[in-house]
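Quick start: load a record and inspect it. Here is DNA-binding transcriptional regulator, AcrR family:
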Amino acid sequence: MTETRVRRGRPGHDQATVLRVAIDLFIARGYDAVSMADLAAELGLSKSSLYHHVPSKERLLELALDEALAELTAVVDAAADGAGPAYPRLRRVVEDSVRLLVAHQPAVTLLLRVRGNTAVERAALERRRRIDARLAGLVRAAATEGSLRDDLDPEVVSRLVFGMVNSLVEWYDAAGPVEVGALARTVVATALEGPARGASPG
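Running the structure step on this input writes:
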């Protein structure tokens, strides 16, 4: 009787549900400390049933980190490769990055705890470095066109901007009083209008 219940598990699980639970466990316990058996127990599944949804713990980590990075990569690439003045494109990137962080807050939280201990983690860190480099290029272009101060290191500005955005995982609550649009506008104003020359461009 008990064996039948465990084998069948709870209804309604799909890969997206498994991924959500896995991300929560990885954050709470640390990736290395979580086994597939732990995840199966959390979901109310047998290990064999869990393997129908996902082939390995490493694949779950890969999916989680891709969730955190894929849309952000697309947004940064589109802005970096876009036409027109750099400063408005930079502002849009920062605002969009806030919205994406809020939309994928658990996955981003996990990404920020990655230390490069596995090939999957190292690949994610390399993707982060590429994003930083492309954002720094936008900062440099905005300085060249006169929209930002040119005495600030673009790489440092890029890291500080993303550092501010990433800090939101520590305190922002989407159910709280600060609406995400207002949050994004505040981050843009704080991160970019400080180094802007004069009134910020429209």
